[in-house]
Batch of 2 targets.
Target 1
Amino acid sequence: MPVTAQVAKKWELFRGLYESLVIKHIVDINQAGKRMELMFARQEIETPSGLMATSVTASIFKGSGFRASLPKLYTSPSETIFCPDPNQSLYCQLLFGLIQREEVVMIGSFFASTVLRAIKFLENHWQELCYDIKTGRLSHQITDSRCRNAASLVMKPNPEQADLIENICNCKSWDGIIRKLWPKARYIAGICTGVMRQYTAELEFYSGGLPLVSSLYASSEAFCGINIEPLCKPSDVSYTFLPNMAYFEFLPVKNERDESIEMKSNNEDTELVDLVNVKPDQCYELVVTNSTGLYRYKVGDVLMVSGFHNNAPQFQFVERKSVVLSVDMEKTSETDLFKAVTEAKALLDPLGFILTEYTSYADTSSVPGHYVLFWELKEKEDKHCKELDPKIMVECCFRMEESLHYTYKIYRKRNIIAALEIRVVKQGSFEALMEYCVSKGTSLSQYKKPSCIKSEEALKILDSRVIGKYFSPKSPL
Ligand code: AMP
């Protein structure tokens, strides 16, 4: 996507708008303290035209206005944001955030999954980080010279702070850990709608009651809408569209939730609707025309009109259009999948396990094909002593099938689809998946775990880490 100075100005305007809403509803972030915002900039590559290419987030971080505000408003120095190794970058950003913990008013990242990843990384590295804070010396594992230089400017031995952090991290349960580690934090920032919904429950566990703020809906194609009620529940978040960001049009989409066997009609010939003409409760696919060359580009997101702010339409994110599981004529959307997983994972709760990550895959290597769910589980209290009960796991498979749509159930009954399977993978498997995607060029800041696996390599990564396989025992109808 070409980026011009005009587009860069729009980014700044957009950021200013959603931040002013946080200031209005929660705290004056520019005055109250610092933001521990986890940011990762991918390295630029030179295109044959001589123009540089990078991710949107990286170009925002490179902007002169943003860089100038870093030392005063953020805990992460730019050297850590631009560090080419994502793990070294995260280690250092956590270190800087912990050193300045008394000043931190916000913990966040672009997507909620990154905040969660940081907390998990902290679970594995807090002893090392405390040691660094105690001695005032950066771990030898950090080899990036720019990060080392940045650290040497601020680090000095602080055994008291290190002991405090050690005591907090050493406790049995990490329930509410974010609030304990950053006592002045007022909110957690990170998009938690769409594919990120699955992370909200776990983030709420770590957050200690801090509000989870999903401020914006944006894509590389266009910055679209902001959440004018930042304190609302993640499930109620709507984005008010800003008509000055791009020219927005909408392709009506038949509501997938209606439980008929019929396939959705091909809507190539359906008329596009302008922003001013969208209707409440109707679902649309977003189409963008922007000032840098995209003409009527289908972003691939399905949105539902949830209301209006004055005359500006507000949308709830429904799903990525392309994400569906299908082994025959049925179509299972991201929303269907999320609903079924939510129902099934409730069975794990009394056992002391939580579902931390999931993805899916339509296995058609045998006939009939079947749905495979990869689940990564974690004990609520990290004792590593609990065994998974196979009976419950089988029940989870069945509960998922029961919660899927009517078409799925009919197909299951007629043996057009075989029994749903849950493959439990060992801890860290989804991190390995992410590392693989990052190694293939995905920006860490913009990484979204796929709801459905399509690539052979990604499948191999998960399959090689399976520790248990469970199948639904009977048809749901
Ligand atoms: P990217 O292509 O990396 O710029 O990612 C843009 C995509 O991320 C969008 O098209 C959406 O699918 C997803 N996304 C961005 N913001 C949100 C949001 N607030 N809620 C749900 N999904 C989002």
Target 2
Amino acid sequence: MSKVVTQRKVSCWPKVGPPIHPILAPSVLSADFSRLGSELRAIERAGCRWVHLDIMDNHFVPNLTFGPPVVKCLRKVSKRLFFDAHLMTENPTGLVEAFAAAGTQNLTFHVEASGDSTSELIELIHKHGLRAGISLKPKTPVAAIEPYLRQVDLVLVMTVEPGFGGQSIIPSCLNKVRTLRRYRESKRLKYVIEVDGGINLETIELAVTAGAEVLVAGSAVFGDRRVAENIAALTERMRIASGIPSL
Ligand code: DX5
Ligand code: ZN
């Protein structure tokens, strides 16, 4: 039986706009898996506060990555980075306890995988002291997550089909970001909006302008091994798009 834990102190949680203070969340999916620890240290040195951990099970998506034992090792390497786990798995409920124990701070699941137990799953994530995120694939409408928007801390809008890095953004998915932004304002809700997929120097401004507060980028950060330069360039584009003098 899972035990109740106190909410992990979160110092990296973005303020909900306006104005937007965007956060870059590098996805290690495009990192060198043989040296994940160094990759985390590199993004931390480059000023990042978040890291995005893509968990794939070869069922919900046709790809397979890593699980709680790897996350636990990474937690030892970086005490400061905010661990943002993106579960692209069936049966997310069965994974909550292990990811919480491994040091994850936000756990995002897919509404296409949570079915009838979505509300209970969000409660379970909160009971373990984590922030709870809900995600939707490109073809899933915002209406599918609307019943849960009062409960969640974060909404992850997929801007590519989940499963692989290096795909091109589907620009129409940004309409969901706009819808979620308007809905949040009209209902005075607090969830943070994150986008994931195809975010790079050419597209990051579009995503920030649409209203995203957390920008996931995998290949645009790790693709050419110039990690620090890529993070600096993406951060500068985010700053310009958000109209913030300095991030
Ligand atoms: C895709 C993952 C993404 C992926 C993004 O299913 O959820 O986080 O790493 O990769 P890029 O930024 O290369 O599109
Ligand atoms: Zn992801």
